[in-house]
Design a protein that fits this description.
This protein has 207 residues and is an alpha/beta fold. The chain is 34% helix and 21% strand. It has 7 helices and 10 strands. The strands form 2 sheets. A 6-stranded mixed sheet has the order 2-1-3-8-5-9. Strands 4-10-6-7 form a 4-stranded mixed sheet. The longest helix has 16 residues, at 18-33.
Length: 207
Amino acid sequence: MILHPKVAVCVLYWGDDPQRAACWRYARARWLRWGFGLILEGDARAGSSTARNRAAAGAAWDVAVFADADVVLGWERQEGGYVCAYSEFARLDRQATADVLAGGPLPRKTARFDVGIWEGCFAIGRPLWEQLGGFDERFAGRAGQGPAFVHAAATLARLERVPGPAYHLWHPPGLPQGRAEDLWPRYRDANGNPAAMRALLAERTGR
């Protein structure tokens, strides 16, 4: 086992039902087995952006891996930009998840792999995290905060992917989220424009 003392795993966690708790026990055991001893949980009831920011503030780190509690993968350490920790994203159904949680292997391939998702698990270095000012808490739990963060990172740094699959474990759906129609389009429109993106970030960071 290789220890990663300067790497924190910041997890967005909903502890509201037994299935989600079972998914997180399984995922947490995998992180620990791989040597990631610094695991920081953020309570998703505070809102996704706030929960991630609070988790990141829980300890000193050089690189943070942001992961949902229901996502598992094999991960390699990368630094510099925003590094998505997988190249394919599979959503397991209820039976496949039950099989995995009972000790079965993760499937090598499913019919539901998606290459367009960047947010389930990613790593980011401290300098870029500070530059971006964390997640924008003005989203206040509304959908769009993840893609907004990706747009900001892509504009001011770079996006990379680590080859390999990730698996989303099944659980009952959470509460529906509304989209921040007044904020999300501004991130979308600033994508690729460093000056516009810095101005948008400066509204909340003061920098």
